Amino acid sequence: KFMKLAEIDKNLAIPSNIGRDDVVWLDIDDEPFRIYGVTKSKDGRYIRMPDEVAKNVSDGVHSLITCTAGGRVRFSTDSPFIAIKTEQPLMEEKNPRMTNAMKNGFDLFINKNGKAYFTAAFVPECGEIGGFEQLKETHNGGKMIDYTMNFPLYGRVNKVLVGIKEGSHIDRGEEYEKMKPIVYYGSSITQGACASRPGTCYEALISQMYNLDYINLGFSGCCKGEVPMAEYLAGLDMSIFVCDYDHNAPSAEYLRDTHGCLYDIVRAKHPNVPYIMITKPDCYEYNRTDVARRREVVYETFMRAVKAGDKNVYFIDGERLFDGEGRDNCTAEGCHPTDLGFYRMSRAIGEVIRQIIVNNKEEK
Predict the structure, then answer these.
(1) Tens of pLDDT, residues 209-218
(2) Maximum CA pair distance of the chain?
(3) How distant is the alpha carbon of residue 274 from its chain centre?
(4) Against a cut of 0.70, is the pTM above it?
């Protein structure tokens, strides 16, 4: 008979309950918590875009708006522990490339001097139903600490309570840089497949590096540049727009029919917002002909914009995103990034974003 790993190694055990009576539970929908990247629907679910808009885009997008990729809550506390209690229809769909932490879990970061540092992960036990609760010690020495908690990338969430020790203080926490959110539009890679946990997808990593707010509108298999989606994107208040949907276009021909149109619609509403175009970051040893044709389409949109006088448009070649030693370990299966792949994406895309921010400050 084999022993369970948690019986052999206590560091792999997941506590099934908190087991203490000095926890005060606070709803993150209330002050002083601040929620980013998601809103509440009429039926009480956290969603990434309005239900009625998603219905007009596609059934797939409508289904995926309840995945909470990019959702975050910020707060500060001097509690010696932080607990969470959730109400969520835990994602039971088994996929060998997806961890339970990225599907259903939350991870916690300490915010300090404009950067964020990982400190804990809250992950339900496999087989949990309807939500879970867990507690993590903070070892903060009684000091007020600023935190960001990231929501699951693929799971759904209805309610989150944060637990602190009775008598502890709670406050709003650190603010993001004083600029509008960055909007990311793209495929399953944009949504976060296959990061090990929420805080290791490329948008979260960029946010952690530069203390930036963002909205994740990545929809697995369903980002195809449709006109209703383009019009919704154009209506958002944003500081930078990142267009990363090459992967979901069914063909290079389809991409040609939609890519320039999406640019035109967004640019008409946001004539001066920096617009970043990215081609797909596969392991380029395979199917290079199709990849080259797609790259050409995106580059043509970019060059058309440049020739028309657009000084706020940027092109990132996906073939370069995984560059460096260990390139072959940057994806889970030749497509979706591992944490190494997402880290390299965050460095390449983040550097373009950093330079945009620097240039904007210099112009002011």
Answers:
(1) 999 999 999 9
(2) 71
(3) 20
(4) yes
